[in-house]
């Protein structure tokens, strides 16, 4: 159980309020977020490294700048297709899909492939034709499927993103940002099918037109320890782009570089920076007693509370700072109280910046005492 210091500041409620704020100072660490820009010199117009578990940004350069993103678009294409489609369903490739320009897996009109086979072609070989075939299989028309992509982007909070096609072919109104791509990738990597495909080095697609041997365009899978994704992208407008991921010692990082002169080495710099200079710290465990709250007219005068989920944050390992817990908790709750009842919120801050949080729940319930006993107590 924590022993927080109660502070009533300008932004807190006064002592006679029904809500109080608690602050606990924890062992010294430093802040996360965007800092020490001089530590990384990158040619990329936009760049970012994010902790996949916590969503914290560890370094960024122009993270919210909307830019052309080329075939990194296919991350969203695959995510929507996996969530909406049946991997084993097979449909015939249309003339339109087979005739798409640019990077291709050379689909033939009327050729039948499953959705899973098309996803391998789109994510590993970066097939523009495979993306259109996927879109038509899911939504009949590509423009309808693109609407699903934009809807998913809004759901994920990707505010600087708009798609006009399923494959990333140049369009002035087709764009995203380094931060948005990291958000989308973080969501996609939680899907085991997506994670399996983007970590595959080579794959064979059987078909009526013969076998297709695919080799992943992401060279990081061969050259970087722990690399397990994600997607390359190249056009004249977007330059050389790469969204990469890697896992080490139970941590997974996502790196994004857009319009880079050296996307491989700059991605390695970002990932090394995240792995070497940061660590994860477990702050609170779900199910364990965190504090207690007073109960009005209850058989029990107080009940223990916990958090609804484990709270883990990413912190730098080489600087001194402060990790804080900010608790907003009801002063007193009325009986009856039920286990799992929400009574407040916890927010974790590093150097004053929020980096995680959870809801506060009652661990134990209590019945309400009879009316005559409550009157006697008040007397």
Describe the protein.
With 379 residues, the protein is an alpha+beta fold. The chain is built from ten helices and 19 strands. The chain has helices spanning 74-84, 95-98, 115-123, 128-139, 142-156, 178-189, 192-198, 220-223, 263-277, 371-378; strands at 5-6, 19-25, 46-51, 57-61, 90-92, 112-114, 202-205, 212-215, 227-235, 239-248, 251-260, 278-284, 291-296, 302-307, 311-316, 323-330, 332-334, 342-350, 353-362. The chain has an eight-stranded mixed sheet with strand order 1-2-16-18-19-14-13-17, with no helix packed on it. Strands 4-3-11-10-9 form a five-stranded antiparallel sheet, with helices on both faces. The protein is elongated, with a radius of gyration of 25 Å.
Features:
alpha+beta; 379 residues; elongated; 19 strands; 8-stranded mixed sheet; 5-stranded antiparallel sheet
Helix fraction, binned, reads 25-40%
Count of helical stretches: 10
Q: From the structure provided, what is the oligomeric state, counting identical versus distinct chains?
A: single chain
Structural class: alpha+beta
Radius of gyration: 25 Å
Sheet with the most strands?
Answer: 8 strands, mixed
Q: Termini distance?
A: 32 Å
Estimate the mean pLDDT confidence: 87
Strand content: 25-35%
Q: What sort of overall outline do the alpha carbons produce when their principal axes are compared?
A: elongated
> What is the H/E string?
EEEEHEHEHHHHHEEHEEEHEEEEEEEEH
* Largest beta sheet: strand ordering: 1-2-16-18-19-14-13-17
Strands, total number: 19
The parts where pLDDT drops under 50 for at least 5 residues are 1-38
